Structure to design on (629 residues):
């Protein structure tokens, strides 16, 4: 009975109710859209990083520090026997210099087995012709340095003794990836070529595992890095983005809640005679408080319905078309594709509805508590209390 | 046929005999270019894409291994000091009031955006100790008659596997040096000019360093004033002097 009465009162308030409902419906749609976008990015970034860089985990040479290129000189060793030949991709890493268009640019040289199947890198394109060294570069690297497939590039590096060497290498392929750490500033060669160039035969800096059965082995001189460890930076960024986004939701919710709160205060003030009559007719004060709380809380139910009317088609469209990033994704140095497809989980939708409804109900209850202290006779008379 | 071969061998022997011993030439270069101590002021002219920058400095050096440099201009670099003791290098920056040791890969970085790396600055080994030398030709360079010497590294831990130098026949100054990668690709070129007589020895006042794989005019190093074999204050060549 309370619900029926509350709905009738609410609809009876007309424009005031619909303004509240519309503002609140924005909260629903924007929270679901933004969080869906963040979740979509997370799903895509994890998928891409696993496919292009991490696979099932990596074994790092004990001296290797991915944040310190100065360790590269000493962080390589013989590929362990229990990993060699398995479903792994050993990678040898060293520093080098390229000279695109007469400019000098430091790069990271990465040697990877041509026939590897662990990472999505198109290493099968590293085909040697006329004794030239074939290399692969990413699309961003190629664009920034105006490189095309078939171009020749001067490459300078140092061998294991520190002696300079230089040669012309051929761009055998340009690949497109959303993982900048595989693309930006990287030149990929065959493992054999780089080992020969640096006199590091049979050695690698890290070994990418392509099978869970190879993980967590205790190998002297090598440390296993799990997928969670390798994705920790991404998780941290996603978490920060979520927190950043929640500030927006809080502001939006505050706006809606302020409107509901004001409406409740006004209702209680203007409907004193009505409250007095309810009590005089036999309703307890608690029942009247409940009625007013349901009335305020019902704003969120109406908002969910209104939000669904325009939000569902909008969110579905966004899911299908995706959200084009308005800036260069590689500016961040983390995996972001040019178009992000949001991911709306049931948990996200239900969670948002529950949060908004709960908040609206609490905000409605706070002013309604005043009713409990009203004197019914004065209320019927319309005396201000 | 036998006569032709004999003639060829004779001519080869004659022409080979015309050239001095490469090792002796390197010894003379090392003698001329090295001194017990020296104090000099210099200007480094770094040519970049957006123009040129001049960096003035004063250096006190003892033997070939120890030196102390203080930058005098421009204002941005003024007060920066660099100390080199054997194969160690420290740099003091007045803006941070900190001394940092330049080691490992940092040595491969460019010195103030020039074509010179810190490692190039540390490369003070006498050429005779590092390279086998063979005189292969004689050519004129910048008006000076020069021996052309091919140098091949004696050990496999030198930055440059081979060099080609043009040595002034009379002044024993390497007027031009080409530095090669292991593959034989030309990496850097150094040219010396403005040779003057200072305290009984010939000395090039201007040196130009050029990374040959990169566009640009390279970096010039002009010695404006130099004194050889002068006493260096004892307290200058130690880390404590950097913060003074």
């Amino acid at each position: 009975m309370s619900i029926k009465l509350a709905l009738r009162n609410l609809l009876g308030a007309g424009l005031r109710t619909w303004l509240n409902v519309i503002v609140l419906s924005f909260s629903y749609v924007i929270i679901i859209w933004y969080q869906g976008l963040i979740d979509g990015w997370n799903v895509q970034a994890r998928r891409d990083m696993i496919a292009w860089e991490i696979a099932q985990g990596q074994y790092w040479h004990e001296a290797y520090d991915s944040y310190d290129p100065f360790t590269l000189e000493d962080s390589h060793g013989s590929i362990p026997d229990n990993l060699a030949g398995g479903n792994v991709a050993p990678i040898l890493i060293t520093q080098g210099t390229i000279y695109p268009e007469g400019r000098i640019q430091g790069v990271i040289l990465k040697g990877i087995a041509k026939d590897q199947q662990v990472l999505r890198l198109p290493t099968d394109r590293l085909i040697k012709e006329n004794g030239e060294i074939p290399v692969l570069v990413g699309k961003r690297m190629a664009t920034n340095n105006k490189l095309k497939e078939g171009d020749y590039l001067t490459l300078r590096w140092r061998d294991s003794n520190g002696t300079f060497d230089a040669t012309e290498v051929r761009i055998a392929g340009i690949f497109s990836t959303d993982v900048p750490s595989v693309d930006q500033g990287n030149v990929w060669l065959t493992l054999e070529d780089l080992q020969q160039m640096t006199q590091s035969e049979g050695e690698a800096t890290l070994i990418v595992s392509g099978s869970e059965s190879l993980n967590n082995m205790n190998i002297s001189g090598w440390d296993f890095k799990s997928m969670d460890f390798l994705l920790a930076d991404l998780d941290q960024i996603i978490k920060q983005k979520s927190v950043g986004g929640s500030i927006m939701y809080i502001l939006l919710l505050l706006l809606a809640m302020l409107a509901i709160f004001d409406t409740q205060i006004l209702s209680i003030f203007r409907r004193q005679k009505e409250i007095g009559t309810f009590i005089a007719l036999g309703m307890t004060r608690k029942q009247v408080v409940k009625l007013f709380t349901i009335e305020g809380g019902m704003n969120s139910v109406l908002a969910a319905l209104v939000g669904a009317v325009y939000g569902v088609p909008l969110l579905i469209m966004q899911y299908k078309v995706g959200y084009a990033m308005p800036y260069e994704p590689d500016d961040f140095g983390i995996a972001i594709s040019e178009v992000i497809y949001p991911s709306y989980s049931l948990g996200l939708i239900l969670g948002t509805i529950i949060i908004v409804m709960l908040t609206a109900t609490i905000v409605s209850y706070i002013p309604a508590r005043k009713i409990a202290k009203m004197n019914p006779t004065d209320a019927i008379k319309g005396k201000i209390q | 046929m036998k006569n032709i071969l004999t003639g060829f061998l004779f001519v080869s022997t004659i022409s080979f005999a015309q050239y001095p011993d490469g090792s002796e030439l390197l010894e003379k270069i090392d003698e001329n270019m090295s001194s017990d101590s020296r104090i000099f002021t210099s200007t480094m002219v770094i040519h970049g894409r957006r123009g040129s920058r001049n960096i003035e400095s004063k250096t006190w050096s003892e033997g070939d291994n120890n030196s102390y440099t203080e930058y005098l201009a421009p204002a941005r670099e003024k007060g920066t000091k660099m100390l080199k003791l054997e194969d160690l290098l420290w740099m003091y920056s007045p803006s941070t009031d900190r001394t940092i040791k330049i080691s490992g890969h940092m040595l491969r970085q460019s010195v103030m955006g020039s074509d010179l790396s810190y490692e190039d600055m540390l490369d003070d080994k006498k050429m005779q100790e590092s390279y086998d030398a063979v005189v292969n030709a004689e050519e004129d360079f910048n008006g000076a008659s020069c021996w052309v010497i091919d140098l091949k590294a004696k050990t496999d831990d030198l930055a440059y596997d081979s060099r080609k130098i043009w040595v002034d026949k009379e002044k024993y100054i390497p007027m031009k040096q080409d530095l090669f990668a292991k593959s034989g690709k030309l990496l850097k070129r150094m040219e010396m000019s403005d040779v003057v007589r200072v305290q009984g020895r010939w000395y090039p006042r201007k040196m130009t360093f050029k990374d040959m794989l990169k566009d640009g005019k390279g970096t010039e190093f002009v010695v404006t004033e130099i004194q050889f074999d002068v006493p260096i204050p004892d307290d200058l060549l130690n880390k404590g002097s950097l913060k003074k």
